[in-house]
Amino acid sequence: MENITEILDSLIETQSDNENIVEESPTITQNNLPPDHIKLLVSGNEFIVPKKTIDRSKLLTSLLEASENKSEISIEENPMLFKHILNYINADGYVFPNALKTQLDELMKKFDVSKNFADIWAKSEPNEKAKLYLNKYTSVDEAFSRAKFEDSHTLRSIYREGVDINFDINTPNKLNMFNWSVTAHGACDPYFLEMMFMFGREDIKTDGQHVFEMCCAFGDTRHIEVFMKRYHQYQWDIFRGMRYAVLHNNITNLHHLTMYHTPNNDELEILWDLATGGFLGGTRVSIYLMHMFEVKIKKEKLSEKIKNYFIDMLEIMLESYLKQGGEPFKITKEMVDEILKGTDDRLYKLDLLHSMGFEVEGLEEIKKIDEKDLPKSSARRYVELRPF
Predict the structure, then answer these.
(1) Domains in the chain, start-ordered, CATH in brackets?
(2) How far is 154 from 227, CA to CA, in rounded Å?
(3) Per-residue pLDDT for 284 more than 90?
(4) Of the residues 122, 126, 154, 244, which has the fewest C-beta atoms closer than 10 A?
(5) Largest pairwise CA distance in the chain
(6) Over 60: is that where the pLDDT of 9 sits?
(7) How many of the other CB atoms lie within 10 Å of CB of 217?
């Protein structure tokens, strides 16, 4: 398996240049500035920006040339407004929010900032699908949020009408478009997540891990890759993502995540318990873990969970347990009583255990009991099973 650093480095090399959204920086001295970066002070607020960002503005370039300190510029402007200018320069395709467009256009002229290629080649009219959303909703921001499941062309077309990417960031209980972009009810287009990163969504630091976990559970590998391209910056907890993939039986995403993280023995035990813990049981995930990581089925764990397995899952577990060298053990009366309270295929399970060499205490007496006199089962499946 490739080293995670090599994989992540290769992903970063293929990223676009739109990954330089500017944030206010912690204090960095002149001596430890990143190579080819400039310290820009905007009314005392410090931004560390690439030198190529300064080169896009004729005024900033002239201020740098006139500065005694060739690695620092100081200007007096509204830092919240000027951050949009820096974002525009660093993210081709960035648009100004409608509410600030007039002020920002004036700043663009004042600092003589060159236009982005996306502005030069962009279509002036939104596409037909984008128009449907723009005509239906009262604001361009809401139209964009509602269109998160649409294709990248439609999303880009709506965004260019002046979306504020952070318009709903203060919605109570985090019921906003980023936190709800991927859920059990549906997953947004991966490009919607790309736009969150490219254009400066401000709650990524606080809520990105949660959205990453939702992608592992309900998204696909494309959603995961949007996050993994930024792993070096955000250090996502990949194992938590694996847990969510297992909980929701998403074997494709689980396998994809193993490219970036190999679970240790303790983590494998957690994943195994999650995969085999419920009544339905993650049959495919359990088989995957057994074959991929040679997970050992322990007698204690197996005996604990017989009650919860439906018969198809139980058969797989028993076969694997025996193939791994496990010995059939006695199913005591206490264990039988618990099995009878479990899934509604309990009699079939007792027959299966007996046929595979396990001694089932009182089996013949139990077979004589009428089904209606058995304890109420705690899990029912709607599939007819034929007797052995």
Answers:
(1) 1-116 (3.30.710.10)
(2) 22
(3) no
(4) 122
(5) 98
(6) no
(7) 21
